[in-house]
Amino acid sequence: QLPSAAAAYVRTVNEHDPAGFIALFAEDAVVDDAGREIRGREAIRAWAAHDIFAANVTLEVRDVSGTDGDATITTKVDGTFD
């Protein structure tokens, strides 16, 4: 069972819903993308437009562990990227 925030993240990515995706983030949110920090909603919007939505990323949940407030979700990532 995916925690609600993680489920919304996966759903908005898989449905290619940039507006729904960015609505999940606070104005001062920080994304850590493999060691690269993206800070603030506008920077996250630009990152997602390029790295998620332009690349047609989809996520297939493989495993969930932890608790609702501190979960680890393992996914298979696919899309049109190298």
Query: What spatial form do the alpha-carbon principal axes imply?
Result: globular
Question: What structural class is derived from the secondary structure elements?
Answer: alpha+beta
How many beta-strand runs? 4
Largest sheet: 2 strands, antiparallel
Q: What is the average of the pLDDT values?
A: 95
Distance between the ends: 30 Å
Stretches where pLDDT is under 50 for at least 5 consecutive residues are: none
Q: What fraction of residues sit in β-strands?
A: 25-35%
Instruction: Report Rg.
Output: 12 Å
Output the strand order for the largest sheet. Answer: 1-2
Helix and strand string, N-terminal first? HHEEHEE
Number of helices: 3
Helical amount among residues, as a percent range?
25-40%
Q: How would you portray this structure in words?
A:
It is a single chain. This protein has 82 residues and is of the alpha+beta class. 35% of the residues lie in helices and 33% in strands. The N and C termini lie far apart (30 Å). The mean pLDDT is 95.
Would you kindly provide a brief summary of this structure?
The protein has helices at 4-14, 18-22, 41-53; strands at residues 30-33, 36-39, 58-67, 70-78. With 82 residues, the protein is of the alpha+beta class.
Produce the secondary structure layout:
Layout: H1 4-14, H2 18-22, E1 30-33, E2 36-39, H3 41-53, E3 58-67, E4 70-78
Features of the shown structure:
82 residues, alpha+beta, two-stranded antiparallel sheet, globular
